[in-house]
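Comment thread on ticket #2218

A.B. wrote:
> Attaching the input chain for the structure job we discussed in standup.
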Amino acid sequence: MSSKGAYLILTHVHQPINKGPNKGKMQTHESCEFVDRYKTKHLQGSTIIMDVVKREFIKNTYRQDGLTYDQVEEHVIKGYADKYTTFLELVSAPIPEALLLEKEEVEKLIEENKEEE
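C.D. wrote:
> Ran it. Output below, let me know if you need it in another format.
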């Protein structure tokens, strides 16, 4: 169990596709939660738990080696920008510059970062 804080929890469930042209391939379902406490079930079932105040991973079992906090945060901003902004404001956590920019500017910055790697 965690003490009270501000946590972002990403969970990925992989399921086989049973019908259609993609039959036999795997499909990934992602959920994103914003909580003030994470529970044992989160530690056991989630892919990533991030402390948004300390800006560090509590748990990171994502398969990509070297995955950084900033990379995960970019992913969250792409898919959950409004909810993430609201959560950060509620917990008085620092708001990343990318959330203060327009969506098009964020996507441009992400592309530029990929080209540099």
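A.B. wrote:
> Thanks. Noting for the ticket: The chain has four helices and four strands.
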